[in-house]
Every structure is written in structure tokens, then in C-alpha cells.
Amino acid sequence: MDVDHSVQNESVSTVDDTTTITELKTENEQTMSTTKALVILVVIFSLFILILGYLYYSFPQMTEEEKKYIKIPRNTTDMQNLGRVLEDYKDTNYTQVFMSIFFCYIFLQTFAIPGSISLSILCGFLYPFLLALAIICFCSAMGACFCYLLSMTIGRRLAYRYFPDRIKSYANLVKKHNDNMFCYMMFLRITPFLPNWFINVCAPLVDVPLIPFWLGTFFGVAVPSVLVVQAGQTLHQVASESTWSWSSVLLLATFAALSLLPVLFKAKLRDKFD
Predict the structure, then answer these.
(1) What one-character-per-residue DSSP string does 251-273 give?
(2) Which of 168, 231, 238, 251 is buried most deeply by CB count within 10 Å?
(3) Contacts with 142 (C-beta within 8 Å, 6 or more apart), sequence order
(4) Does the predicted model carry a pTM greater than 0.85?
């Protein structure tokens, strides 16, 4: 009996050791995969920085006063100052100004960095209405798709590690709207139910097809962007006048208030769509 008991204990011990080794090996593989994903992400981020750096240093010679305004605008004053500087160079260096805004917008969208709303207003400041709207829609769709592809290839493990519950909730919503995915993606872009960065990161994880994702983003961002572009054009009008026009100021405030309507009616819109 003692011999059998000893053999049984050794067998159980071997099983436990094997299980422990397997768990440790799996954990190590996951850690290595996460590390590799982070390295790839840093490399891609660095490439974008190099492109933006090249565009910045290849820009025509500017005065020291102008250089301090070349930054991502954070408020109305920053946008006015940046808009004035770029407008001065737009006629003689149209391509460089355009490509700088184009790549900067896609960069912010790809890595979910705040600031794209300011660039949207800047587009309205610098370009005609339809062109500004097309730039915003295209850059938003391309940046969202790059974020989608990054998540699909290197961000899956990170997303499941840090947002498991939210991904499950998002997956349930997607399953309910499989037959009208394009309309559902448009709806998500128009309304503030889910953050845009979260939609971009988790869409490939819950099997949202890329084409409806791109099209839904392109047309979905057009609706709120109409107000943003018009706000940029109004800001340009205000900046161009020697004195402030109260009608322009009121128009700008109106557009800002209208942009908050989806937030105020969030619950009603959600119930109606579901």
C-alpha cells in the first residue's frame, strides 16, 4: 500500500509540475508577444514622427515669430495664429501645407491622439467648404483604418488584456447589427456612444468587416464635420476682420452648441436605434 501511495503521489506531483511548466511557458509566450507588439507599435509611431519631422524641416524658411505657432492647436487663439501663418504660405507652397495637414491628421487618428478636432477647424479655416469636408472625411477614414489594422495585427492581445468587458459588450452590439453594419458604423461615428479610438481598436476584434468600417467612418464623420468646417470658416472671417463682428461670434457659438446635441440626446438616440 505504501508503494502504491508513493507512486500515486509521484504521479500527481508530475502532473502538477507539467501543468505549472505549461502555464509558465504560455505566460512567457504571451509576455514575449506583448513585448513584440509594443516594439512594432513604437517603430511605426517613430516612422510617422520622421515623416512629420521631414515635412516640418522641409517647410519654407519662417521667422521665429511664425515658428512658435507651428504646433497642434489647443484653443481658438492657437488656431487663428496657425491659420494665419499657413494661409500666408498656402499660395506659394500649396503642396507642402496640404501634405502637412494630411499626414498630421492621419497620424493623430491612427494613434488616437487628441487634436484632430482642431485640425478639422483648421481645414475649414484654410480651404473651401467641400474640399475641407473631403479632407476631414478621407483622413478620418484612413487613420481609423490604420488603427484598425494595427489592432488586428499587433494589438489584439493588449486589447483583450486591458478591455475584456468592454470588448464583450461591443461584440454583443455588433452581433445585433450584422445585417446593416454600414449604417451601424455611421451611427456610432455620428453619436458619442463609444469613443472613436475604442471603435477603431476593437472593430477587428469583434469581426467588423474593413470595407463597411471605412465607408461608415467616411460618411459618418461627415455629419458632425459640417458644423466643424463651418466653424472654421467663421473663425477665418473673424480673424480676417479688423474688428470683431458680433454676427460671426454668435454664429461660431451656435455651431459649438449644435455640436453638443448628440451628447444631450444620447439616451433617446440609443433607445431609438436599438
Answers:
(1) HHHHHHHHTTHHHHTHHHHHHHH
(2) 231
(3) 106, 109
(4) no
Distance CA 8, CA 116 (A): 65
Rounded Cα gap, residues 11 and 240, in angstroms: 84
Task: For residue 56, give the nearest of 90, 86, 100 by alpha carbon.
Answer: 100
Inter-residue contact 112 to 146 (CB < 8 Å) = no
Q: Is the dihedral of CA 61, 64, 66, 69 positive or negative?
A: positive
- As given in the structure block, the three cell numbers for residue 247 are 454676427
User: Tell me: the pLDDT tens digits for 152-201?
Assistant: 887 676 677 777 777 777 777 777 777 778 888 888 888 767 788 888 88
Angle of CA points 121, 125, 127, to nearest 5° = 110
Tell me if 220 sits within 8 A of 138, measured CB to CB. no
- H or E stretch including 133? helix 129-150
C-alpha cell at 48: 510617422
Q: Which residues contact 171 (CB under 8 A, 6 or more apart)?
A: 205, 206
Q: Does residue 99 sit in helix, strand or coil?
A: helix
Q: What is the DSSP code (8-state) at residue 178? A: G
> 38-61: b or e for each residue (b if 16 or more CB lie within 10 Å)?
eeeeeeeeeebeeeeeebeeebee
Give the closest residue to 234 by CA, choosing from 217, 246, 223. Answer: 246
pLDDT one-digit tens code per residue, 87-122: 888 888 888 889 989 999 999 999 888 888 888 888
